[in-house]
Amino acid sequence: MDRLAGIRACVFDAYGTIFDFASAAARCSEIPDDKRAALTNLWRDKQVQYTWLRSLEDRYADFWQVTGEALDFTLETLGIATPALRERLMELYLTLSAFPEVPETLRQLKEAGFVTAILSNGSPMMLDAVVRGAGLQDLFDRVLSADAVKVFKTHPRVYEYCQRQLGVRAAQVSFQSSNAWDAYAASAFGMRVVWCNRYGQQRERLPGAPDREVRTLAALPALLAPPA
Predict the structure, then answer these.
(1) Looking at the structure, do residues 145 and 208 belong to the same domain, yes or no?
(2) Residues 196 and 125 occupy one common structural domain
(3) Which residues does 125 contact at the CB level (< 8 Å), separation at least 6?
(4) How many domains does the chain have?
(5) Residues annotated as catalytic (active site), given as ranges
(6) Which of 23, 57, 172, 192 might form a disulfide with 8, Cβ 3.0–4.6 angstroms?
(7) Are residues 73 and 186 in the same domain?
(8) Is 133 found in the same domain as 31?
């Protein structure tokens, strides 16, 4: 298979792609074992749903607020809502673990001459905390937040903001996301896309189509021709 050519910037979604959102609940001993998986899944589902709904309603609130509101819904649904548990989980969300292959993958990309960046719904405060907590601050050239344009992915304005900030054309970006909806939207916008399908999702029936599909980011450097 030919390498993707003409790429200048490698841009990554944050949550689920670089950082394991399940690691917050995994490190919280206060959660009953029989509710840990349900909490992780429902929290993430509501978090994403709220970003889409707020974008449709044109009622933007930053990702920290959205994450807290999604957690409130989840804790109440599971019958384990306490102020102390909420506070602990929100703290843990600022120190999510990076997936194991991430540091070496980023090092390889930077050594090859690619610009590396994050493009995330996360607020600037959240992204600064999680990048620093994982020790990745020297491996990203830019960390870009949808907060700058006050709307969430998959709105085209977010992807446009990314290309403008990096000074590249959409086709010069290799965009990586574990979220199929994000991968397809970036492709429809005109970016080249490597879908990191960590969770074995089915292909979406949406505009766009990822150029490549991998299970971990470790496969990424071999898919990209070095920038000229």
Answers:
(1) yes
(2) yes
(3) 64
(4) 2
(5) 13
(6) 172
(7) no
(8) no
pTM of the full predicted structure? 0.96
Residue 185 lies in a domain: yes
Asked whether the predicted pLDDT for residue 41 surpasses 80, the reply is: yes
Question: H or E element: which one contains 192?
Answer: strand 192-196
Based on the fold, state whether residues 107 and 188 are members of the same structural domain. Answer: yes
Amino acid 163: pLDDT: 97
Which phi and psi (to 5°) does residue 215 adopt?
Answer: -95, -25
The 10s digit of each residue's pLDDT in 4-37 is: 999 999 999 999 999 999 999 999 999 999 999 9
Provide DSSP, 76-103.
Answer: HHHT---HHHHHHHHHHHTTPEEPTTHH
CA distance linking residue 7 with residue 149, whole number of Å? 25
Q: How long a stretch of residues is the chain?
A: 228
Q: What is the pLDDT of residues 147-184, one digit of tens each?
A: 999 999 999 999 999 999 999 999 999 999 999 999 99
DSSP 155-173: SHHHHHHHHHHHT--GGGE
Do residues 71 and 111 share a domain? no
Q: Residue 85 sits in which domain range? A: 23-93
